[in-house]
Amino acid sequence: MKISRLLIFSFLFVSCFLSAQTKEVLFTIDNHPYYNDEFVRVYNKNLDLVKDDSQKDLDKYLDLFLGYKLKVEKANKIGLQNGLNYQNELKSYRNQLSKNYVNDSKVTNELVKEAYDRMQQEVRASHILVLVDEGALPQDTLKAYNKVIEIKRRLDAGEDFITVAQQTSEDPSVKENNGDLGYFSAFRMVYPFENAAYNTKVGQVSKPFRTRFGYHIVKVVDKRVNRGEVTVAHIMIVKQNDTVQNEKAKTTIDDIYKKIQQGEAFESLAQQFSEDKSSAPKGGVLQRFGSGQLSSEEFENVAFELKEKDQISVPFQSQFGWHIVKLIEKHPVRSFDEMKFELEEKIRKDERSLLITNSLAKKLRDKYTIIKDAKIIAKIKAAVNDDFYSQTWVVPEKSKELNGDVLVINKDKKINAKLFLDFIAAKQKSNIKTKPIVRLVDELFEKFTEEQLIAYYNENLENEFPEFKNVMDEYRDGLLLFDLMEKEIWNRAKNDTIGLHNYFANNIKNYQWKKRYSADILSSTDKKIVEKAQKFLKKGKSLEYIREQLNKDGKVNIMSKSGMYEEDYDVLSQFENLSKGVTSIVSKDQYFFVVNITDEKPAGAKELSECKGKAISDYQQYLENNWVDELKSEFNIQVNQDVFAKVKSQLKN
Question: What domains lie within the chain, and their CATH numbers?
Answer without folding.
Answer: 121-225 (3.10.50.40), 229-331 (3.10.50.40), 368-461 (no CATH), 512-605 (3.10.50.40)
